[in-house]
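Notes to self, Chitin synthase:
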Amino acid sequence: MTYQDPEKKVLHQGHLNPYFEHDYHAPAQTIVYDPDPETPTSFQSSLPETPLETRHFGPAPSGCILRRRKTKRRVQTTNGNFVIDLDIPTQLVLPRHGEPETMKTRYTAVTGDPDNFEKNGFFLRQNISGRRTDFLSTMHGVMRNIAHLCTRKNSQTWGPNAWEKVVVCIVADGRHKIHPRVLDCLTLLGVYQPGPMTSSFDKKDVTAHLFEYTTTFGLDSNLHFKYPDKGIVPTQIMFLLKEKNQKKINSHRWFFNAFGPLLQPNVCVLLDVGTRPGNNSIYRLWKAFDVNSNVGGACGEIATYKGKNWSLLVNPLVAAQNFEYKISTILDKTTESMFGYLSVLPGAFSAYRYIALQNDEKGQGPLASYFKGEVLHGRDTDIFTSNISNRLQRILCFELVAKANSSWVLKYVKGAIGETDVPEALPEFISQRRRWLNGSFFAATYAIAHVGQIMRSGHSSIRKAMLMVETVYNIINLIFSWFSIYMMASMTVACFLISTGNRPQTTKWKYKLIAIVLSILMIYLIFASCCRHIWLSVFFISFIVGFLTAHIPVYLLSSILAFDPWHMITSFLPYMLLSPTYINVLNIYAFSNLDDISWGTKQDSVVIPDLQAVVQDSQKGVDVELETPDDTTIYEDALMNLKTQAKNDI
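result:
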């Protein structure tokens, strides 16, 4: 432990024990398997409180203290870039020894834009080993799925060495945004080492920090180590730590435009942090692409996290969302999958065929339309464009199906479950749905306005006819979404707003629109008055009641046919009681805040001190300060942090 004050260092010298005994040396043989390696422990004893007054030292520093015991190392540049292989911490658990990719962590200081990643001379470990990649995915529970792929011994694609065909890519949106406990977990896995991180290289700002490592063990949600004897297999991990917070679309651009051209994957699986896939969910998604070569995108079921013993269903808001998610999957997703076009593939858990997303020779295609939202978001754009940028997954789905001279379809895969947390408080719920409703409304308008692209696609005549039927269905949904707010009340409020501070001569068309709408309402009232005596008949009242309650047996029957009826028992009543909130509060708040294009969940950025700068000399080499393996304590610090901090902080 290092103390900046010499007097305090002398005072505590007698209370310090050796931190760890660094007696590990990698054996010389090729591969050695240790079925039950010892879990690392820390022998540091707690320090007694200092008898000195602390007012002379100032307040306790926030975060980790920068260590000064570093050594300068001469590093040759690779293709003019700063790339260095780091020794792993000596205390790192190694169930499999002797493999080079498990003994070194590769760090790359990435400069420039993700679209120019390959052009600027950057490369990945998989390019050196020449491995064929079938997956790229963000990481949360993926190791169990990789282990499942390795058990498919009779598969022509998978098998005992299936892990070599899988690359897990973790993209952190901002160095100052990532939670410190996440970095602690990645440190224990051997992926993250902050020593060589730089703020600039050769007078060029570093935009991202890339770490590459193959870990041979895992950590579960309870922070317990999982070794090969528990079914864990080696996992190739790429950890990209972006220097700035640039939102989700930019992270996807790194994913597809920077790494994709180098790895040439077959299927890309996208997972949001917090989504927990089932043990074989990723395999089920991949199987949908393997069986049907026309599948360009697929998704599974997004299930709500119910807590231990379904305890969270006691919250009516969570129960209502559980019912909503289930019914949306059983009715909407299955019906849309039959037509071949899902209106949205959830960003939390979905998969795409890489070649289906590629642009044509003119630079037009699904990815071009998708990443256009990164440029438009936050600029002085109109309300329509600004709100579309919040739901670009819908634009990506439409552009994929309507791709010129192609016949890609989207598919729902039953059994591929991804469990995610849902808002438990009403304010967060309203903010989330504001973004969803506004983005979905304008994205649906975009799809309807560009329906002509479907006719120029490569689909068969029957498929085009089915897609046109689905477009009519979407138009009906769009009309109901807009006019679900009570029309008479809206016109009354509009009259008050227009009449305040405006002369009729300057707002002619507004008053004319209100007059037309009120005339339509008057026609309806006259018709209703004439038919009043029919409405009072017993038969018609029974018909109306039956019509209003007809959706209940539809929900029940569809749930039974899907062999998933439990939400009807646990969540139907809260959903019915909160239905007025869904219809009134959410829609009114959403359409009243069309000018709000924020995500609603992001917090303001916090600036932290810059890292060291590295300058290249004429000999194509750089001098970089590195913490020596014997002096560094980052691994032990990470272990202690995870032991002392609450698991909910991760």
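- The radius of gyration is 29 Å.
- The first strand starts at residue 32 and ends at 33.
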